[in-house]
TrEMBL record, chain B:
InterPro entries: CPA3_Na-H_Antiporter_D (IPR050586), NADH_UbQ_OxRdtase (IPR003918), ND/Mrp_TM (IPR001750). Residues 122-382 form the NADH:quinone oxidoreductase/Mrp antiporter transmembrane domain. PANTHER family: NA(+)_H(+) ANTIPORTER SUBUNIT D1 (PTHR42703:SF1), NADH DEHYDROGENASE (PTHR42703). It is found in: Cell membrane; Membrane. This is Formate hydrogenlyase subunit 3/Multisubunit Na+/H+ antiporter, MnhD subunit. One of its GO terms (biological process) is ATP synthesis coupled electron transport. Pfam families: Proton_antipo_M. Belongs to the CPA3 antiporters (TC 2.A.63) subunit D family. Keywords: Cell membrane, Lyase, Membrane, Transmembrane, Transmembrane helix. It comes from the Bacteria. One of its GO terms (cellular component) is plasma membrane. It is a multi-pass membrane protein.
From TrEMBL, chain C:
This is Multicomponent Na+:H+ antiporter subunit C. Pfam families: Oxidored_q2. Its main location: membrane. Belongs to the CPA3 antiporters (TC 2.A.63) subunit C family. PANTHER family: ANTIPORTER SUBUNIT MNHC2-RELATED. The chain crosses the membrane at residues 6-28, 35-53, 65-86.
Automatic annotation (TrEMBL), chain D:
It comes from the Bacteria. Coiled coil: none annotated. Keywords: Cell membrane, Membrane, Transmembrane, Transmembrane helix. It comes from Paracoccus tibetensis. The lineage of its organism: Bacteria, Pseudomonadati, Pseudomonadota, Alphaproteobacteria, Rhodobacterales. This is DUF4040 domain-containing protein. Residues 11-76 form the MrpA C-terminal/MbhD domain. It is found in: Cell membrane.
Length: 492, 563, 105, 318, 492
């Protein structure tokens, strides 16, 4: 029975996807209900798994899908971290998406792929082998593509093309890397790093470059970040889920897995790979922030912010040592909830006030105060203002850098925080302090079903990101959970 | 207060304002919360008075497993701040009663208060940092409360420097905590820093991060524009209590007891430079609130100069902290009272204006260190750790302090309504004046262990007060001949800096615009040029004869490969 | 010996026919003649089969049977090929007539 | 003596083949091809393969020749002169080198193999069980009956394929008329053809019958029948049937169906396509007759070509 | 009684019946599908290697039918493909349909003929019998191609004839040299001498024409592109596989003794070129069906690229079998879907597909799923196949082969996502004619089957290797040191 729980995690979104595909637009209410119910059920299931996992129980489902290659789903503590995040945000994003589109066209397709996306993200999280990971990683690419091109206009199509070009090329590199390594050392399970000693150093380095390069595309590492800002052509709920959880996180999570589970942090350091990766991540952090400052389109600004923020995770992964690992993992969660908040708010603003550019943001705080309040919390979190969650991540990343003897990390974090302020604070300034430009009436955010469903999800995640920081030491908080993982000897 | 656990009291000090802040968000209740402002600091006041030194309380779920504690120094800071916040709150409750943004003001007031209290009682760096951020960033809305362009400009300067300070502090704490083996307790960090092998960078990050808040020259530029921009009660707490957060941070984190000749001397130089320069700049202002703000920079320069001396000489904490706490208390209450006084000046009843000016003069003289006043008490105490040169400088600074405060007296507005000012405001002001003039005496013994003796060596003190006398004479003379004070722009270096920044930003935008456009051209790749030869290629392969030839060649090739 | 020589002789003839057929297939640029060339090649293959199955007294009946099968298969395909050639010519013809008609009007 | 004859025969074969391919005139090439086929038949006779010789002359030369001539005639009628664009001499030289190389390689391979009758003996030991004498028929209808079965379907499939390309309006009509509509020839050929059809039937029946013991068999018989039908149609003695004529369909599938049926009947005895002991010859002959009938009809229709719209039936004879 | 001969005979019976029973195609097809499905299941349950001679006539005289792993995979796949394509064709070639009556009448006999030919080719081990089955397939295939374009069909026929002649030439040499044409007997007798080598080269050349391996592919794109959709599906799915399977039987079983590594590498090299050329051409096509047809050219390349890998470490044999099956099913699905899309579209060009994702979501989904398999993205049969092949290549240190396969996958993504993107584009939903449910269901079912293959990889790989010829590497993993050595040598 327990062996099938991991399967159940995948089945729920699959069934939801199938139902969504099947129900015609005339049954939209049924579809909405289905989506929400399945998300809730999955949340309950994840809750159960969390309790079990805290007691040290891991769930595993194994199937030899090709000779010598096992398809392994393993729900361990680190997987649950990501699963919990995606499940929670799935529910939120679903509610938001329902309100965002109201009763627009092509929603059967949208929700179907949306659910497939969640399935893939869950699969990525609970993959027990490199090849399983790859399968879901690719599925994710495929499931997100229809969402990126959902609008069907020229911009979306270009974005879709760029997206695919980048991600599929990355996947190919990743596949080549894992197969190559597998050919040398046998199956790559995410349990304990295999013995890499017989492999020549140069080969190991090359494979590492392939793996990281492949994953770096989705994680939007420099110089593979180009797809992400373009993918902003997608509807807001997609951007929200894509950027917060699904795609970029899958890449970052994969890099964590590669560094800690395939190579082992020690080997990475011995090979002299940790530092270059950390440099690359740092460069991405700063570059993404700089580019974000230059953007006028809100979503693009957020996208470049994501480029920057996701590299924090990579940075944490590349620095040897448990504290940095905690930082990386916890930022995985924190960035998720903060960024989804920001995107949902941006979407709500675009949807209700047709605000798309930073320069149009004047007075938005008066027109949609709740939304802008949520946005503010998210933005402050991104900057690293305590007690919002971003602060916790940065704290651990910085400590991790110092622990590893890389004090320059502090400078990167500091510089990034300053740049974050530089691109977020003007937004807040305009929204709260300048008078509205147009003749928009204030939006009744809390009355009317659609409005409420559009506004409250962001408020919930904003509060969650506040809570995750404020109550960082509370049992089951992301930080505590991550510490549990690391204390259990994982990622050492 | 029997029956109340001191630890709970202590935590209530921080959480009570937060709870009130949440109430401010409620749409109906929010604007009315302004009247509850005086209630917000009461737990803090109670804690400062009743909670015994050494009270600790762990907050295991919060942040990074933090905690709060109280000791004597902290109690002084907390108590002083609580008094000021209470009375300023009372003042604000009336002052902003009909303000259209009352709810927002109340919200941020409470948040800043919570942060301010948190800074003083934080036992660990994370809690301190969070509280400090709360103080710094949430004070921004207070600064720009009236939304006037000048305020917004001031706010912008404020927020930029505050963020930079936060970041510096963040780095310092991270490095300190790492040096302390991962412990985030303030005590551990300080002890580690006092140990051998500490990176002076940490020290400088701390000084920079906290110094910005405390108005350390030359990082002070935000202060003379931001403090006056806020509404009167907010200015009072900004100058009186909030700057003390920076001072408290320095006291709490700097490694007392070990000698840091270079860092200490540098800090001392910066501090004392501020003491004089800021005062002189302040004397050249025309807005009384700006004058007061410069005075704050000057006074904080004094404290930080003393800190620098102590750092350079390796003075132990016990010999320094109580004294500086006392001085901070004195300055906080006095400056708060002066700010409220500026607010009162325009509403004071015409016929009792002399009484008002008397009160203000007393406050000013006390601040400048007139013998027998509370200020003299604090100044005398502070000369101890300041060393010989420091003491001399402090003594001489009475001249500049006197000048700036004299300038204040001349710039006070003199509108003369014919009805009494609201009693709440009146009460708050008067209470604060009393507190300012008496509190150092009341707590002196408790803090320094000896009873205050303001009359000892009185003659010497009077002689030593010559710079103050000179200041009074100069001021009087200037007034008598109708000499105008020189005019300096608010925020001295700010304007040139702003112009430079504007230029830089313009350049930057020009750059980013070209960047953006080139961006578009690179990221939208054009369709590859249509290959005109496709048809020909296809036709060539589709040709039967060609296929047959290819077939023959392939078979032949295969054959030879097989042989 | 003679049988051996006879067998080789016909087999070699078959080999040459195959080559000839291929040459024709490549150089002749009309489908009908290519069809013919293929048949020549095919005949060559059959002849090779027969020649190499030539025993001292008899010819192996097994390849004989295969050749008969081959011949029938070849004629079936040739017939279809011819039909296709005609059909294509009809289409071209009709298209040309359409063009001419279009040109007149 | 015989070797010399064979050598001359081979040279003639090669000559006619070369002529059929290298002549500029397509019609000339076809004529030489028919001669080539007949010479091949003689070659097969010389190899002692009478069965093959019959098949080659009847099918390889005869039916294929008629097919090609008819196609040429119809192409000419549509204004296609069946001319090839000349290829460049260099190209021809290059191709010649390639083909020469192929010939050389093949020759070496051929010479490395010594011709022998490899399976004759083995077949001879098995023949008595079949009750027939002609080993080729034995191979075709017993040992390799599976090949033959599939082959009959190739033939049937080819006819269906020809149907598939019927022009619009042509389905399910008759093929274009083969009748040569000159009044003088009509009477001559007409009379001739009326006689020839029954004669061909008889001859086909004979060929099939002897085929079990002597050279001959279903394919040869079927071809003769087809020839008879074609000549009859040519003379206008009979009209070729419509493609959807159920009688025609029945005749077409009769052979393959009977083959299949008897093969499937074998399953009852254990194996597909195994004949019950004692009934071998009877069944083989039954299959052969049915096949001959079907093959005859199929070949005739294949030569006649695809169904065309009724109006075109008359035109086709031009 | 055995399914081996019945699988060949049953479609022939249906061919006869279809010629006699004019309007009963519907019930006939149902009966045929049921029969063939039952027989296929029966076939799969046989032990690998089960064989018997037809009619009881022993080798070398008789014809041996054998169910090896390859056949046990391919024949059921044929049943699936042909059966579902038939369901689709039932409407296209219904008496009331628009297709010309001749095509309606002729399609069904040809369809059964092709079905029989495919089964016969996969089941027999007799080289001459294979010649006959090749011609059965050619007749049916050319006739089906002629339903679209007579010119292309004529080209196809002549080239195919030439290929057949040369195949037969090789058979003649083999028969004369060894006195048998049975692959199983030849496996024990064959020697690497001049005649054998020449025979192998000639037969292979002839078969490559039939399999449309670059540069002998010229006939394929016009023929496959022009034919009616169900015909294209059968042509690309079934017919090209026949030539391929015979080549496999020659190189790895019958004449394995003469198959030198150099020869294998020549084929592998041509396969690599085919992948690249076919993909690049597909990218440049303007017409949808031509694109899909060129995709076949590329995919055939994989089959031959695998040749040099078969004997080495890894599971290249299973990968090869897998790819044949996966491509058959996926390509059929794609052609059927493309057929439906083109019926609804304004024209044959890719650009004419705009908006179809909204108008016919199920069909576009089928196209997309088939594309997933063809691109080799998980989870799909195509992925499993490519995975095994790349894995084998890397384990043997053949980095270039691996790279070509991965690049081929990327190029496939480039050309296959193009029509999908167009289908998603636009804002208007074109009005499409109503379609019979079975017409929509057929490509979808096939595409799903291609996808599900990816989940059945283990059992199917076992099946494929179960009856594999002796030359295929037996699977114990070579010692670690060996592979490392090869890899490192490759590095240097």
């Amino acid at each position: 029975m327990t062996a099938f729980l991991p399967l159940a995690l995948l089945t729920l979104p699959l069934v939801a996807a199938l139902i969504s595909f099947a129900l015609p637009d005339t049954r939209a209410a049924w579809r909405d209900a289905t989506n929400i119910i399945f998300a809730l059920v999955k949340l309950v299931l994840v809750g159960f798994l969390l309790l079990q996992a805290q007691g040290g129980v891991d769930f595993e489902w194994r199937y030899e899908f090709l000779p010598g290659h096992d398809f392994v789903l393993r729900v361990d503590a680190i997987a649950l971290l990501f699963v919990t995040l995606s499940t929670f945000l799935w529910l939120i994003a679903t509610i938001y998406a329902i309100a965002y589109f109201e009763r627009g066209p092509n929603l059967a397709r949208f929700f179907g792929f949306f659910n497939l996306c969640v399935l893939s993200a869950t699969g990525v999280a609970i993959s027990g082998t490199a090849i399983t990971f790859f399968s879901f990683y690719e599925l994710l690419t495929l499931a997100t593509w229809p969402l990126v091109v959902h609008k069907g206009d020229e911009k979306s199509l270009t974005a879709g093309r760029v997206y695919l070009t980048y991600t599929l090329a990355g996947s190919a590199a990743f596949l080549a890397g894992i197969l190559w390594l597998k050919a040398l050392v046998g199956p790559l399970e995410f349990a304990a790093p295999p013995d890499l000693s017989p492999v020549p150093t140069l080969t190991l380095i090359l494979i590492f470059v392939l793996l990281i390069g492949g994953l770096g595309v989705k994680a939007a590492l420099l110089p593979f970040h180009g797809w992400l800002p373009q993918a902003m052509a997608a509807p807001a709920p997609v951007s929200a889920l894509l950027h917060a959880v699904a795609v970029v996180k899958a890449g970052a999570y994969g890099i964590l897995r590669v560094v800690h589970d395939i190579y082992g942090a020690g080997t990475v350091a011995d090979l002299g790979l940790g530092l270059p990766l950390a440099f690359l991540a740092s460069a991405t952090i700063l570059y993404g922030s700089l580019r974000a400052v230059m953007q006028n389109d809100i979503k693009k600004r957020l996208a470049y912010s994501t480029v920057s923020q996701v590299s924090y995770i990579v940075l944490g992964a590349s620095l040897a040592g448990p504290i940095a690992a905690v930082g990386a993992l916890v930022h995985l969660v924190h960035q998720g909830i903060m960024k989804i908040t920001l995107f949902m708010c941006a979407g709500a603003l675009a949807n209700r006030l047709h605000i798309k550019a930073v320069t149009e943001l004047d007075g938005a705080g008066r027109l949609m105060p709740v939304t802008m309040a949520s946005f503010t919390i998210g933005a402050l979190g991104m900057i690293g203002v305590p007690p919002v969650a971003g602060f916790i991540s940065k704290w651990y990343l910085g400590s991790g850098g110092l622990e590893a003897g890389d004090a320059w990390v502090i400078a990167v974090l500091a510089g990034s925080s300053l740049l974050n302020s530089a691109y977020f604070l003007p937004l807040l300034y305009r929204a709260w302090l300048l008078p509205p430009q147009g003749d928009h009436a204030p939006v009744a955010e809390l009355t009317g079903g659609w409005n409420r469903m559009l506004v409250l999800p962001a408020a919930v995640t904003a509060l969650a990101s506040l809570g995750a920081g404020l109550f960082a030491s509370f049992p089951f908080s992301p930080l505590e959970w991550v510490s549990l993982i690391v204390d259990a000897g994982y990622l050492r | 207060m029997i029956g109340i656990e001191p630890a709970l009291l202590l935590s209530a000090a921080a959480f009570w304002p937060l709870a009130l802040a949440m109430l401010c968000v409620l749409p109906k209740l929010g604007p009315r919360m302004i009247t509850a402002l005086p209630l917000a600091p009461l737990p803090a006041l109670a804690a400062a008075i009743y909670a015994p030194s050494g009270t600790e309380f762990g907050l295991p779920w919060l942040l990074l497993d933090g905690g709060i504690r109280l000791d004597d120094t902290r109690a002084v800071f907390l108590g002083g701040a609580a008094i000021l916040w209470t009375l300023a709150g009372l003042y604000a409750a009336r002052y902003l009663q009909n303000d259209q943004r009352a709810a927002g003001f109340a919200l941020f007031w409470n948040l800043v208060l919570a942060g301010n209290v948190g800074v003083f009682i934080a036992a660990d760096a994370a809690t301190f940092y969070v509280s400090f951020a709360l103080v710094s960033l949430m004070a921004y809305p207070l600064v720009i409360h009236d939304r006037k362009p000048a305020s917004l400009r001031a706010g912008a300067v404020y927020i930029v420097l505050a963020v930079i300070g936060e970041v510096a502090l963040f780095a310092a704490f991270l490095m300190g905590s790492a040096a302390a083996g991962g412990s985030i307790l303030i005590a551990d960090i300080r002890d580690t820093l006092a140990g051998p092998g500490t990176d002076p960078l940490i020290l400088w990050l701390l000084i920079a991060g906290l110094g910005i808040k405390a108005g350390l020259m030359p990082l002070h530029i935000w202060l003379p524009v931001a403090h006056p921009a806020a509404p009167v009660p907010a200015s009072a707490v900004l100058s009186g209590a909030i700057v003390k957060a920076g001072i408290f941070g320095l006291l709490a984190f700097l490694p007392w007891g070990t000698t840091w000749p270079i860092s200490g001397t540098t800090l001392a130089l910066m501090g004392f430079a501020g003491l004089f320069i800021a005062a002189l700049l302040g004397a050249a202002q025309s807005n009384p609130k700006t004058v007061l703000a410069y005075s704050t920079v000057s006074q904080m320069g004094l404290i930080m100069g003393v800190c620098g001396v102590a750092l350079a000489t390796g003075l132990p904490a016990a010999a320094l902290l109580p004294i500086l706490a006392l001085y901070a208390l004195h300055h906080g209450l006095t400056k708060g009272a002066l700010f409220l006084g500026v607010g009162m000046a325009s509403v004071w009843l015409r016929n009792s204006r002399p009484f008002f000016l008397l009160l203000m003069g007393a406050l000013a003289l006390s601040l400048a260190g007139l013998p027998l006043t509370a200020g003299a008490l604090a100044k005398a105490a502070v000369k101890g750790p300041a060393g010989e040169i420091g003491a001399a400088l402090i003594g001489f600074s009475a001249l500049t302090s006197g000048l700036v405060l004299a300038r204040l007296m001349f710039t006070l507005p003199s509108a003369t309504p014919d009805k009494n000012p609201p009693p709440a405001m009146m009460f708050a002001f008067l209470a604060l004046v009393i507190a300012a003039l008496s509190a150092p005496f009341v707590v002196y013994g408790q803090i320094l262990g000896t009873d205050p003796d303001p009359t000892a060596d009185l003659a010497k003190k009077i002689v030593e007060a010559w710079p103050l006398g000179l200041a009074v004479i100069l001021a009087a003379a200037a007034a008598a001949v109708g000499m105008q004070a020189p005019r300096m722009p608010e925020g001295d270096l700010l304007e040139p800096l702003r112009r430079t920044a504007l230029l830089a930003m313009a350049a930057f935008h020009a750059m980013s615009d070209t960047k953006a456009s080139s961006d578009i051209s690179t990221e939208t790749d054009d369709a590859p040029p249509a290959l005109t030869n496709i048809e020909r290629i296809q036709a060539a392969f589709a040709d039967r004869a060609a296929t047959a030839v290819a077939f023959a060649l392939i078979s032949g090739g295969l054959f030879f490969a097989l042989i | 010996m003679e049988a051996l020589a006879t067998g080789h002789l016909f087999a070699l003839t078959g080999a040459v026919l195959v080559g000839l057929g291929l040459f024709g297939f490549i150089t002749l640029r009309h489908a009908l003649r290519q069809l013919l060339a293929v048949n020549v090649s095919g005949a060559g293959v059959f002849l090779m089969l027969g020649g190499l199955g030539r025993g001292a007294a008899t010819t192996d009946p097994f390849p004989q049977a295969l050749v008969i099968t081959g011949i029938v298969v070849a004629v079936a395909l040739t017939a279809f090929g011819a039909a296709l050639i005609l059909r294509q010519a009809e289409e071209d013809h009709a298209a040309k007539e359409d063009d001419e008609r279009g040109g007149k009007t | 003596m015989s070797l010399v004859f064979d050598l001359v025969l081979c040279l003639m074969i090669l000559g006619t083949a070369a002529a059929s391919l290298l002549m500029r005139s397509a019609l000339g090439g076809i004529v030489f091809f028919i001669a080539f086929g007949n010479l091949l038949g003689i070659a097969w006779l010389s190899l002692g393969a009478v069965n093959v010789a019959l098949a080659e002359i009847a099918i390889g030369a005869g039916v294929t020749g008629i097919l090609l001539i008819l196609a040429h005639a119809r192409l000419s009628a549509m204004g296609d002169p069946v001319e090839c664009e000349p290829t460049s001499p260099w190209m021809r030289a290059a191709v010649a080198v390639i083909c020469g190389g192929l010939i050389v390689l093949l020759s070496v391979a051929v010479l490395s193999i010594s011709p022998t009758d490899r399976m004759g003996a083995q077949i001879a030991t098995l023949m008595p069980a079949l009750g027939i004498e002609n080993p080729v028929t034995g191979v075709l209808l017993a040992f390799r009956a599976y090949d033959t079965l599939l082959e009959t379907f190739v033939l049937l499939g080819a006819l269906v394929a020809v149907w598939a390309i019927a022009p619009p309006g042509g389905w399910p009509q008759r093929p274009a008329s083969l009748a040569i509509a000159t009044p003088v020839s009509l009477t001559v050929i007409g009379t001739f053809s009326r006689v020839l059809l029954p004669a061909s039937l008889v001859m086909a029946a004979y060929l099939v019958w002897t085929g079990s013991d002597l050279p001959g068999g279903a394919f040869q018989g079927g071809t003769v029948l087809a020839g008879g039908i074609l000549v009859a149609a040519l003379g206008g003695a009979i009209a070729l049937p419509r493609a959807d004529d159920m009688r025609l369909r029945s005749v077409l599938v009769l052979g393959p169906a009977m083959f299949l049926g008897i093969g499937l009947g074998g399953i009852a005895l254990g194996r597909f396509l195994s004949y019950p002991v004692g009934l071998e010859k009877a069944l083989i002959v039954a299959i052969e007759y049915a096949l001959a009938l079907s093959i005859g009809a199929t070949l005739a229709l294949l030569v006649a070509g695809k169904p065309v719209p009724p109006a075109a039936v008359q035109e086709g004879g031009d | 009684m055995s399914p081996l001969d019945l699988l060949v005979v049953a479609p022939l019976v249906f061919m006869v019946l279809s010629l006699l029973a004019g309007g009963w195609q519907r019930s006939l097809l149902a009966l045929a599908i049921a029969t063939m499905a039952a027989l296929s299941v029966w076939l799969m349950t046989l032990d690998p290697g089960t064989a018997h001679v037809v009619g009881g006539w022993e080798l070398p005289l008789g014809v041996l039918l054998r169910a090896d792993g390859l056949a046990q995979m391919l024949v059921p796949a044929v049943t699936l493909t042909a059966g579902l394509t038939g369901l689709y064709a039932l409407h296209q070639f219904a008496p009331e349909s628009h297709a010309s009556n001749a095509q309606t009448a002729a399609f069904w006999p040809l369809y059964y003929l092709m079905w029989s030919a495919a089964n016969a080719a996969f089941l027999t081990t007799d080289l001459f019998n294979l010649y006959v089955t090749l011609e059965m397939a050619s007749i049916a295939a050319v006739a089906m191609a002629a339903m679209g374009s007579v010119r292309a069909a004529l080209r196809y026929l002549l080239i195919a004839l030439l290929g057949s002649i040369f195949y037969l030439l090789g058979v003649a040499l083999i028969l004369s040299r060894y006195g048998t044409v049975d692959v199983t007997l030849l496996a024990g007798m064959a020697e690497a001498d001049f005649a054998t080598a020449l025979a192998l080269a000639l037969m292979t050349g002839g078969l490559l024409v039939k399999a449309a391996l670059f540069p002998l592919h010229g006939w394929l794109p016009p023929a496959h592109a022009a034919a009616p959709a169900p015909a294209s599906a059968l042509l690309s799915g079934l017919v090209v596989k026949i030539g391929f399977v015979i080549t496999v039987r020659l190189w790895f079983e019958g004449l394995a003794a003469a198959a030198t590594p150099a020869g294998l590498h020549v084929l592998g090299g041509i396969g690599a070129l085919a992948i690249l050329f076919g993909s690049l051409q597909a990218i440049r096509q303007e017409s949808l069906k031509a694109l899909v047809a060129y995709s076949t050219v590329a995919q055939i390349g994989y089959l031959f690229l695998a040749f040099p890998l078969i004997a080495g470490a890894g599971h290249a044999w299973a990968g090869l079998s897998f790819h044949a099956v996966a491509h058959m099913i996926a390509k059929a699905a794609m052609f059927l879907a493309a057929g439906l899309m083109l019926k609804a579209a304004a024209g044959p060009r890719i650009a004419d597909l705009a908006g179809l994702a909204r108008a016919m979501p199920l069909t576009v989904t089928a196209f997309g799923l088939a594309a997933v398999s063809l691109m080799g993205l998980p989870p799909s049969g195509g992925f499993s196949a490519k995975f095994l092949l790349v894995d084998a290549a890397l384990r043997q240190g053949q980095a270039i082969h691996a790279a070509v396969m991965l690049i081929g996958g990327l190029l496939a993504a480039v050309y296959l996502f193009r029509p999908l993107a167009v289908a998603f584009s636009g804002s208007e939903t074109p009005v499409v004619p109503p379609k019979a449910p079975s017409m929509v269901a057929a490509p979808l079912a096939l595409a799903l089957a291609a996808l599900l293959l990816g989940f059945a990889g283990g059992p199917l790989a076992d099946l494929a290797t179960g009856g594999a010829p002796a030359t295929v590497a037996p699977e114990p993993l070579p010692a670690l040191e060996d592979t490392v050595e090869t890899a490192s040598e490759d590095e240097q």
